[in-house]
Design a protein that fits this description.
This is CHAT domain-containing protein. By secondary structure, the chain is α/β, with parallel strands linked by helices. The chain has four domains: 207 residues, Serine Threonine Protein Phosphatase 5, Tetratricopeptide repeat, CATH 1.25.40.10; 65 residues, no CATH class; 157 residues, 2-Layer Sandwich (Nucleotidyltransferase, domain 5), CATH 3.30.420; 204 residues, Rossmann fold. It contains 30 helices and 16 strands. The strands form four sheets. The protein has a six-stranded mixed sheet, sandwiched between helices. It has a five-stranded mixed sheet with strand order 3-2-1-4-7, with helices on both faces. Strand 2 and strand 3 form a beta hairpin. The longest helix is centred in the middle third of the chain and has 23 residues. The N and C termini lie far apart (71 Å).
Amino acid sequence: MPFFHVGKARWLINLGSALFCRFERFGELGDIENAILVNQQAVDLTPDHNAAKAGWLSNLGIAFQERFKRLGKLEDLENAVLVLQKAVDLNPDGHVVKATVLANLGVAFEKRFEHLGPLGDIENAILVKQQAVDMTPDGHADKAVFLVNLGSAFESRFGCLGKPGDIMEATVAYKQATEHTSSHPFNRYNAARCWATLCSKHQSPSSALDAYTAVLEIIPQVVWLGHRLNRRYEELPGIGKIINAAVAMAISVGDLPRAVEWLEEGRSIVWKQILQLRTPSDELHQQHPDIADELLRVSLALDNAGTSSFQNIDSEVKHKSVEEEAQNHHKLAAKYEELLQQVRKLDGFSSFLRPKKFSELSSVARSGPVVIVIVAPRCDALVMCTSGEIDLVPLPTFSLEQAKTLHLKMLSSLQAHGVRVSCDGVVMHSAEEANQDHFISVLADLWSHVVQPILSEIEQVLYENAHHSLPHITWCATGELAFLPLHAAGIYMSDNWDMNISDFAVSSYTTTLTAMLGSGSKPKRDPTVVHNVLIVSQPATPGQQCLPNVMNEVEAIQRYTSPDHTCHLTHESATVEVVLGEMSKHEIIHLACHGIQNMQNPLSSAFLLYDGGLELNTLMRLSLENTELAVLSACETATGDKDIPEEALHLAAGMLAVGYPNVIATMWSIGDTDAPLIADKVYANLLGCRGNSESQKAKLTPAYALHEAVKHLRKEVGEMNFVRWVPFIHFGV
């Protein structure tokens, strides 16, 4: 193209924008180098009187700042200030982009102040950022961004001069940005997060609580029902940390009920959205059938729209464009929120589908204490007792960094044992080949710093709930602790002297307190009624390693089930469609097959059946009733995603959401010979030898059945063989 072509500058700018976007996506240094090059060419080609030049200079300035972040060369920062200053000078007052250019210049000034320290830079940063705010109308979507930028500059100046007035100015800016409803929810959330963090450091606890309250109110808009599931999960990383900080602040002021409420609001956000769409309300239907029917219709449509994948869309709607599908999803979400507001205006329904208050959540501890362990800058346990009270157990010797270290040590130990810890990991080898030291220290640290201090504080509570058998504890862990085996914590020294949690209690886990409420609402089953059991086995899944002991596992289960009430699907009969169709007909499902945790796309985590994967994404579209137990005798069914631990994004959580109140799952790959033994002992305790005493009934719940089965496995393989017996865990009540 001729150098003097009139449109060349514009095409160069388009190329520069594409290169910049690709740099943001993939981080290739060559892309930002070329973006600067072509943007500079476009600027050089454009005379100052051209109205577009100011905007192109702004693009160039931003590109210089991005390269400075990568390489740290002060020359790039100087160039950013120069070109952005020129962009401001060329932009007439009242121009649509002048506020944005001013804000970008302010960021460059602040960044140069942080690295070189001239006070004039931070003064100029505040000046131009204030100008950007002042010239932006109140209804403009970018105003929250400009206010947050201004608050950051005031914070930076406070760090230099220590003037309390700057903290007040920053607080006002963040608060105004948070309350600016015309701005994008994510920008408002970012403002609220900055406001809360600032108040936690420099202002009163009551101010911090106000800010954290705003954070919690905005999160549902960030992780919006109108977005598809993958988009919602993309928004979640980082939210867990701010939730834990909010909970820690509530604990520090002694507001334990609020701490529980906030923790529950911030956990498994997307799971709760899905369950909320399926929540029946007989009372609403009886009093207001028309709006109840409409809400049900929209909920079902929104549930299907949010959890379907392109491959599963019905053939008659496949022709819809992505844009049409997204628009329809947004309309459904807006209609759903409109209907919710209408319902909440009806007498007696003001709290309909709102986050649960502590008065509702306190009933989860009916079968034993529920222990919530918060891992944040401050570590504590909140113990919800059967009395409805909360006990606070500080954990001063534990920390967020320690939890991360223990998680890494455990992963290292598993890999040393040849245990698969991801969907593309290595195959399990015999446990005798590896050293046990890491596991011993991990379990000992969990005992000394987390579990033992909690047990000591709640000794009386446990005694009151023993009822002639071991008491039951349900763990609800946060952060990195969600990946660690609290149920196996202990000191394992020798046969003559050791101490571990299984000596004192039977352990279960829960993803949320709300999940326990749903499970507890199901009527107790008559123990004399025969269970309908669905067994799905895949000893030779196409494309996968053979599982030679799967048929032994099936035979072990069938020793305790009635042939008339058992359906066994195996080999080519165990297809995704057939299994989905049978799940609603049986109270118990046992899956003996390969399972994978897809770290790149967690919603594609799956049980591997004859014709493909029964994916988490597909399970999320089910809503089953009259279910009792899912046994997931497959690899890594409770592994989760390390980036969003609070979301419990694993197959076990999927089965809980589908409607199973009890799930037996595995934390990592299990030994092929261990699965039949566990199955035999679980079903023997669950379905065989039923007595009439209350203590015997308690032992026949899934949690107690698994506890007894794992105890037997420990004797068989040796207590120090942790990789063999630790992975088996129970979710539920």
